[in-house]
Amino acid sequence: MVRLSTQIPWAELEERYATLFSENQGAPAKQFKVALGALIIKERVAITDEETVKP
User: How many domains does the chain have?
Assistant: First the structure.
């Protein structure tokens, strides 16, 4: 994960991700790093969405 994180253009992707959300509507978005990190872990471990967010 550490090596992978150095290959991701975080600032550019965060900027593009932020355009998908409204500041005036709904809950605030999670940081892009959190969202992408959860997705990568979910796919690599082959678990469900529910298992990914389970405490």
Answer: 1
